[in-house]
Q: What sequence folds into this?
């Protein structure tokens, strides 16, 4: 025990003499862990917020009855008669934007956060409130009941939202709902325990008022059910008693379906986080290996003093594991902070693409945190294991020789080569795995990254000696010196170089994927965006299903002299397989509007004709995801049961990764009822100027409707904005990973230069000018950046190929052509080289000021 | 609109809803017998209450928008089993959720419904605690209009403190009653008393509650009496009743015409309210002397969790003499205002 303590004491005091090195190692570990943790936390918060929102609204309902397009309100009494229904609550819900909170005519808050509208029947809500056995304050008090029922504008606000928005009973809210401006009167504020914490933004209004506000008259979104006995037999009996088209499900199933919608997106992010973790792990590996190899001499002295092999090895590993733990803990803390920042961006992107979400990052659970810590310590232990083993095995007299340090590293080269080969084989194997799922693509990407990371130090060890000879033969003084210095320090730099190489390759891969995607989207926009004006609900992002172009607005548009035709779009979210898809009803009133589909299969004109007649065409992602093609039958649930469509064509589409099917307006209305016009494309009469027409519509609608009126050019710009916004997050993560990698290499180089103070002093004592020293440093840095770049270019190309042809195609269903974007790729490489050069500036400046004699004496 | 002055009643139109009045109820109580002679009693009542006068409610596009609220009280007394079941529900008058026809007798709250069907047969269906009751009711007599002014029944000293009040005694009942939850119905026959009242004004301030009696006796006599109790315990002057002997016109009874004496009391284990539990009724002018005794002590409809009011409404045995001849029958008694204020009964 004492001996172990003494050994650890020696290692500790050595560490204290070099705090910079220790800090560099720690920050490398911490940053790798932080990025991964941040993505993990933010991603799962986004997912769970969908599920918890559903639970909040469902209250204590065990089940719910739904139908596509909503239940007919007159079905409610019959539902109560069905077997095992103990209580039932009709619900109409939606989400609205709150433009202002008004008190006595003046605005006290504008805008206020959005609200979820929960339309309920106060006579039926009782059994669904609160926790069992816990008394709860009623949402609607008896004295408010008459007003609640009779005033179509009366609303009861949740305490948390009211406090946040500064609203109180008696205030008025100016809101935008279903494409129109409306006012609500705050009747009262209810305490959260009535509906549960997650209902913080649920404003309760009467069900009739909700139907009117959200343009859902005649329909119920669902009926919440409490079964008398919550067992599968009762569930089956009730389910069997429902007419075709109505479905009994657990509320969490709906949440899961919605959450599954973002799974591909979230897992892609997580994969990106995983790659960031690889970079982090390489940095950890580098730091751990460095800390063992660097102290070879010290370890030799300890062996000479009689410290046994197991003790020495144990002590070294203990130190490395401690590094993993401390760095991991810092990473967790940093990652949690980063997650909060990331969550906001993530919420915006998911809201743009899928559905409105507000993300609150929950702190990491203890088990998860422990897992991360153990993982980090494990990577550190693995990194330190072989050098520690070698150090322990070496006879005492051999330890501490400078040549021995690199010898230790070189001994590992065959191992690295073996791992590279193994990774490569795994990658090739994953690529050929017979499945349509996208995860083998991810495994392949990781495997090829592993291949590159193992290959780079080995490649450097192999390539540096010939390069040195070449330099000598060409009479360049700095090159052989720099190459020599690098070859001697491969043990310290190999990991960092791999980290940079991998990070750069990821960057190149992602850039290539995004640019390929972008050029494809631009081409698609040219074909798909044909009408002159596009009109949609401003608040579409809040509640896709509730977005409307009000009928009154449509009538006004149709009556405008400039307007030739209105291409109206109805749209519904359907449960399909275990997730959701979209179904569109279109009218395609002009020849031009029929040209907007780019068919990948099927005969265009006859497919359009047949589709308008009641059959369907499907988007590429839907076809790819469910293996559908021309001639197949698409079966979906309508209001009155299952309906089938013959698929007449598959068209290219980049607007919805969930995929959608399109049919004619007439058949759509037969099957789903009037779900409201979601958006309208306006074709203008020949000679009418688009921008002027857009202005005239905006002026006409101002103050009455909350509609976006975009001209053709504006919509194209908007789509590209959304596209860029989407990938902004990807770029952000990428930048973080690359920055960490560059930081890692900078710290490594910095440490190396500082270590070589004596060498530099010798050079200067021998008459080298300071500028020569600078040139040497620069040359070394250049080489340190060039090798990763040489790895990154081919590896990046491979990763991009996998992203485009495997992961994107299989997870989103989008087929895009691979395009290699030279300038951003080369720019990224140049940036890496420049950052490497910058790393030489400080050591060089220090070298300039250094006293030669002092440096020589110190050693 | 207020219940002031005489009203010309037209049936079946006046069996329907009167939305111009604030409050209205359709009250069915009946004495039934199973095939093996077991006594059953039931109550099925639909209450209508306008939330606001029509003029104060804006036009609405949702068919679920509510101007009126309906409540339903259902009870079943199974004397042989000594079981009393009751259930209350409320619902907005909207779409097919709840409502009443204005032109004919049709009133419903979710799946509890009463409808006048073909051939003038009334169909009554309701559920109480999983027990389904389905009855066909056939009117046997003309509507009975209560009050000195026929159909106008004063409830207080002020004009408007009154209701329009019509009964249909002796509806011949045939149907089924489930005596276990979810079970098939057993065949029953019997006689049902239907009360229909509508009014707008609130009750006088010093009204504490009322005792209400109704019975169709085996000699063909129909009797309805109500005693309005003041807060000091006295029986108010506008208490009244109606007596119709077989083959004779209905006679209005005033406060002075009848005497009701309480013979026993029963304390509710649920609400701790002390209800009268046995009576003698005397109407000397018309030679009526009856003993009234509950067939089951506990027939109290408790309010659920503070909503509405608790009251006693139960099947009773009426026995005695009318015009010197013996007369008997199963009828109903309603006791309101013993368990807290009655104001929230609706």
A:
């Amino acid at each position: 025990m004492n001996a172990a303590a003494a050994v650890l004491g020696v290692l500790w005091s050595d560490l204290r003499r070099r705090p910079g090195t220790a800090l560099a190692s720690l920050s490398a570990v911490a940053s790798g862990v932080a990025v991964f943790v941040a993505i993990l936390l933010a991603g799962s918060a986004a997912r769970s917020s969908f599920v918890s929102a559903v639970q909040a609204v469902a209250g204590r309902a065990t089940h719910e009855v739904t139908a596509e397009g909503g239940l007919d309100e007159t079905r409610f009494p019959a539902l109560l008669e069905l077997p095992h229904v103990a209580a039932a609550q009709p619900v109409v819900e939606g989400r609205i934007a709150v433009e202002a909170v008004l008190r006595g005519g003046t605005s006290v808050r504008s805008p206020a956060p959005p609200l979820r509208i929960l339309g309920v029947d106060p006579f039926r809500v009782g059994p669904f409130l609160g926790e069992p056995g816990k008394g709860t304050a009623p949402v609607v008090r008896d004295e408010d009941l008459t007003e609640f029922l009779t005033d179509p504008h009366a609303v009861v606000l949740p305490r948390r939202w009211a406090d946040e928005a500064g609203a109180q009973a008696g205030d008025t809210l100016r809101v935008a709902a279903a494409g129109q401006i409306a006012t609500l009167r705050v009747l009262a504020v209810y305490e959260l325990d009535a509906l549960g914490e997650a209902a913080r933004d649920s404003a309760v209004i009467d069900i009739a008022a909700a139907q009117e506000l959200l343009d859902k008259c005649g329909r119920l979104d669902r009926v919440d059910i409490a079964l008398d006995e919550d067992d599968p037999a009762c569930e089956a009996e009730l389910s069997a008693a429902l007419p075709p088209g109505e479905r009994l499900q657990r509320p969490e199933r709906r949440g899961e379906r919605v959450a599954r919608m973002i799974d591909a997106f979230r897992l892609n992010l997580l994969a990106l986080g995983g790659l960031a973790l690889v970079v982090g792990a390489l940095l950890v590996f580098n730091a751990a290996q460095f800390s063992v190899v660097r102290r070879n001499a010290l370890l030799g002295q300890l062996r000479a003093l009689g410290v046994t092999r197991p003790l020495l090895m144990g002590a070294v590993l203990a130190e490395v594991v401690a590094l993993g733990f401390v760095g991991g803990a810092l990473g967790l803390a940093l990652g949690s902070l980063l997650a909060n920042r990331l969550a906001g961006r993530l919420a915006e992107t998911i809201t743009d693409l899928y559905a409105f979400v507000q993300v609150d990052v929950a702190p990491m659970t203890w088990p998860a945190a422990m897992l991360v810590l153990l993982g980090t310590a494990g990577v550190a232990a693995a990194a330190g294991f072989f050098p520690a083993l070698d150090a322990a095995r070496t006879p005492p007299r051999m330890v501490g020789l400078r040549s021995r340090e690199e010898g230790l590293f070189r001994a590992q080269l065959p191992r690295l080569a073996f791992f590279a080969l193994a990774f490569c084989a795994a990658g090739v194997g994953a690529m050929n795995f017979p499945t349509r799922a996208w995860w083998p693509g991810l495994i392949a990407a990781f495997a090829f990254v592993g291949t590159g990371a193992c290959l780079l130090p080995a490649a450097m060890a192999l390539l540096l000696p010939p390069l040195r000879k070449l330099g000598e033969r060409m009479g360049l003084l700095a090159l052989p010196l720099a190459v020599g210095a690098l070859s001697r320090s491969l043990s310290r730099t190999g990991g960092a170089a791999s980290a940079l190489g991998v990070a750069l390759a990821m960057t190149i891969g992602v850039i290539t994927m995004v640019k390929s995607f972008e050029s494809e989207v631009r081409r698609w926009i040219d074909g798909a965006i044909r009408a002159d004006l596009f009109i949609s609900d401003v608040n579409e992002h809040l509640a896709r299903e509730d977005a409307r172009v009000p009928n009154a607005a449509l009538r006004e548009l149709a009556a405008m002299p400039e307007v030739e035709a209105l291409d109206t779009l109805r749209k519904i979210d359907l449960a399909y397989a275990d997730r959701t898809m979209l179904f569109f009803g279109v009218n395609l009133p002009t020849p031009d509007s029929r040209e907007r589909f780019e068919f990948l299969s099927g005969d265009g004109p006859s497919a359009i004709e047949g589709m308008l007649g009641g059959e369907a065409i499907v988007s590429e992602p839907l076809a790819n995801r469910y293996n559908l093609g021309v001639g197949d039958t698409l079966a979906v649930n309508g209001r009155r049961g299952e309906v089938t469509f013959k698929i007449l064509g598959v068209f290219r589409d980049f607007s919805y990764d969930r995929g959608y099917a399109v049919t004619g307006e007439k058949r759509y209305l037969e099957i789903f009822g009037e779900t409201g016009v979601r958006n309208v494309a306006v074709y203008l009469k020949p000679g009418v100027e688009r921008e002027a027409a857009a202005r005239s519509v905006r002026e006409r609608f101002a103050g009455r409707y909350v509609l976006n009126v975009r001209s053709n050019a504006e919509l194209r710009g908007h789509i590209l904005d959304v596209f860029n916004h989407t990938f902004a997050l990807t770029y952000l993560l990428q930048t973080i990973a690359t920055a960490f990698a560059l930081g890692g290499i900078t710290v490594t180089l910095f440490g190396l230069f500082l270590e070589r103070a004596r060498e530099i002093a010798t050079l200067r004592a021998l008459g080298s000018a300071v500028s020569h020293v600078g040139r040497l440093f620069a040359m070394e840095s250049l080489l340190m950046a060039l090798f990763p770049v040489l790895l990154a270019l081919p590896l990046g190309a491979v990763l991009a190929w996998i992203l485009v042809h495997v992961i994107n195609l299989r997870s989103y269903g989008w087929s895009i052509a691979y395009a290699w974007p030279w300038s951003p790729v080369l720019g990224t490489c140049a940036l890496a080289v420049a950052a490497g050069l910058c790393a030489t500036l400080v050591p060089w400046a220090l070298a300039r000021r250094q006293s030669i004699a002092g440096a020589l004496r110190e050693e | 609109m207020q219940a002031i002055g005489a009203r010309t009643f037209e049936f079946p139109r006046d069996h329907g809803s009167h939305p111009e009045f604030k409050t209205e109820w359709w009250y069915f109580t009946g004495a039934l017998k199973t095939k093996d002679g077991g006594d059953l009693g039931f109550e099925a009542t639909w209450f209508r209450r306008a939330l606001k006068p029509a003029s104060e409610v804006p036009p609405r596009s949702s068919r679920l928008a509510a101007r009126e609220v309906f409540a339903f009280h259902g009870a079943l007394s199974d004397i042989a089993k000594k079981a009393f079941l009751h259930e209350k529900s409320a619902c907005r008058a909207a779409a097919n959720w709840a409502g009443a026809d204005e032109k004919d007798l049709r009133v419903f709250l979710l799946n509890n419904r009463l409808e006048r069907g073909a051939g003038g047969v009334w169909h009554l269906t309701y559920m109480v605690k999983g027990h389904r009751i389905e009855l066909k009711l056939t009117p046997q007599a003309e509507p009975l209009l209560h009050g000195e002014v026929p159909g106008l029944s004063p409830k207080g000293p002020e004009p408007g403190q009154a209701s329009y009040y019509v009964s249909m005694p002796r509806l011949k009942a045939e149907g089924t009653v489930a005596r276990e939850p979810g079970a098939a119905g057993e065949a029953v026959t019997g006689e049902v008393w239907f009360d229909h009242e509508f009014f707008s004004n609130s009750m006088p301030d010093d009204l504490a509650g009322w005792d209400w009696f109704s019975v169709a006796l085996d000699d063909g006599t129909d009797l309805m009496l109500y005693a309005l109790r003041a807060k000091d315990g006295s029986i108010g002057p506008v208490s009244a009743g109606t007596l119709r002997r077989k083959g004779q016109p209905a006679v209005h009874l005033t406060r002075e015409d009848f005497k009701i004496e309480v013979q026993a009391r029963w304390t509710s284990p649920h609400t701790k309210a002390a209800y009268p539990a046995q009576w003698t009724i005397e109407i000397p002018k018309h030679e009526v002397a009856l003993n009234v005794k509950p067939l089951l002590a506990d027939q109290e409809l408790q309010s659920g969790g503070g909503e509405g009011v608790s009251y006693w409404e139960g099947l009773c045995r009426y026995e005695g003499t009318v015009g010197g001849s013996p007369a008997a029958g199963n009828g109903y008694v309603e006791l309101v205002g013993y368990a807290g204020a009655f104001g929230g009964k609706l």
